């Protein structure tokens, strides 16, 4: 609220200040505003111009734009037609204005006592009884009360936190703050950045003659200072976390002996050039005496699993255990089937551990892990339960790592502190992702990781043709599915929901299964979804892998990990409801054999703009990196990374598309400060991250 005198409304029950302040503190804390610096960096999302008052008659000609008027209340009534509402009439020398409140408290009528002077701001529209405002912002004022001389900030707020209380709390925090700049004057001068205090004060209270478009699109020099500071803090934190990990130490896994050689010799194919390059990078990291922290990314079907298995053989050759954790049981089981088939003929004991195992099976697996007899352990998040103790854990592999929270990844890494591995060391960590990370994200959110990219597909893979078809042509698609199955090919039919949702009205997996079973009586149509018991899912998947089932109706449980080379046709129901990354992952389940593969995207018209963009992208390219770049444009980094649940500190102010040059500058300055000025590093991180920095250490 602007700094103007306001006559408070009378209340029959005065508030208890201490309790009210405590409640406000709790509500602010829920917004993440716990310190003065948190409040000061809670910057406005927009502004209102309350620096001038116009006559009511003039406001009537400002249709579509908010206006501020001032007048005296001449009537105040609670009306009941067509619904209960508070109707207040005020007027100035130019005429009357009606204010209408559909939601109101009984006590509000006291503020609108006839004769009170009201200052109201809102959009004027022409009602049956003349000009009116619906739910305007208003306050009771005295005649001649001064107008604010700055724009009024509007902040992101939560339940129970009013703009008035936020503005007051931020103003009080600004009065208490130590405004010392964290960046040296020479850096500010060379980068032509505004001083911190000047930038923050301007953003909270901009003068009315400021370039409002520069504020709105965040190109104003004050915003550039905030963005640079934020990006610099992120770069410093991640680089410092990387240094801290390297200082921690890990057991060097230096042996590549019998197992590694036998594994490579037994493969029925030769590694691609990209796989060999990435493997060399990983092997060099594993030989180091500090923990590897490497992200292995590659498009669907590029062969990440075999590289991960080869990394595991290096750990086992060196006398240590390796663990692979996957986010879903289907994906974990696919890894187990494939890797165990490679490893067990070489004499490696591979343990399997998931939450769905019976108690006795779990205990047996845990005993194998604890004794060290199980050299390789594959499973879901069940691996991080307290009951699981490793004997000598040297390498942790996390697949689809963005699906795990920070706490889960940290818990598995800390398993390496058990047994004979010293507390000062942690296992090496290899994270895998089939969602390629665009360069801008790699430079920011993954600045602490080494990144390896498998950028070529194995030979013999056929390109996937993608067709976008209106669901009114379902019968044609079903006929095409039938023809493909009679030719000996297998088909996925993917649906977004298990049960009917009236809100979304989507075709469900169970209904589709019934429809296809009836339409294709000569084919075996299977069904798999997330609510089935693990044994049921396993039986259905095995039938599909053996080709006893020709058509598999599934929810997105088959998004990752399923590898059936004979499946060459995929139909995705209600494709407009899926994100780009998910569509690309699903499409990657076909095109794994030599047969020409097709992905059909069935959509419900009419299509919105974002859905049209997504489906157009899928039709135009199969390049995972191009798809990831466009996905980032559409969704932004927070959703792209799943960062809301992962604990990563999201960028609040910087935009990775428009502020690329700032990212580069922040990265360069971070490297220089870490070499030359650790005092500035500490001060800047304390200001911008505080305790949040801990989340970036995994």
From TrEMBL:
Residues covered by region (Disordered): 1-21
Domain Helicase C-terminal residue range list: 487-633
Keyword annotations from UniProtKB, A to Z: ATP-binding, DNA damage, DNA recombination, DNA repair, DNA-binding, Helicase, Hydrolase, Isomerase, Nucleotide-binding
EC number: 5.6.2.4
Extent of Low complexity compositional bias: 8-21
The Helicase ATP-binding domain, residue ranges: 285-454
Top-level division of the source organism's lineage: Bacteria
Reactions catalysed according to its record: Couples ATP hydrolysis with the unwinding of duplex DNA by translocating in the 3'-5' direction; ATP + H2O = ADP + phosphate + H(+)
GO MF term (any one): helicase activity
Family, as annotated: Belongs to the helicase family. RecG subfamily.
Function: Plays a critical role in recombination and DNA repair. Helps process Holliday junction intermediates to mature products by catalyzing branch migration. Has replication fork regression activity, unwinds stalled or blocked replication forks to make a HJ that can be resolved. Has a DNA unwinding activity characteristic of a DNA helicase with 3'-5' polarity.
Protein name: ATP-dependent DNA helicase RecG
